[in-house]
């Protein structure tokens, strides 16, 4: 286990990093605004699952392999960009419902899977875990793998709470805006634009040397 002081500092650092706007915040917010709070919470759960998976990869040393081998990095980057563009296309081509109820997205399970894949197919997220987690490992205190796992689980938990609150706030805002056909249409445009911007960000992402 990391010592108490490191856990305290880690918790503060993680919370501060989460409030900085980024891809995960955009993903949760856009889904909650477009489809309601259930979609936002499902996205939050998917992101936290991806955090746990990336923690395992970093603990096992697989993160360094992906980052150091150019073909693996580029494949991950391109796959992530294509997936985001596909989601943007889905949003643009989906029919606009005439009722004030949230547009059906298929199921919250689909949102959960999308959020998990979106995070896992982002090489920058894996790089973040490789750089951020080891800073709070105490040498000689316990197994490095155990410490990394504990830190990763704590980060996933903090992220889950933050993103769930964010989803509920976005869904509340959605209701107050009196969701009508025009608003839903512009919500789809906004969601598609956000996914396209994130895809472009991945396409131009360079592998760290």
Automatic annotation (TrEMBL):
Transmembrane segments: 6-27, 39-69, 115-137, 149-174, 186-204
Record keyword Membrane present: yes
Main location, first listed in the record: membrane
Protein name as annotated: LysE family translocator
Highest taxon of the lineage: Bacteria
Membrane-related topology note: Multi-pass membrane protein
Transport recorded as keyword: no
GO CC annotation terms, alphabetical: plasma membrane
Pfam families the record matches: LysE
Subcellular location: Cell membrane
Organism annotation: Pseudomonas coleopterorum
Example GO molecular function: amino acid transmembrane transporter activity
UniProt keywords, alphabetically: Cell membrane, Membrane, Transmembrane, Transmembrane helix
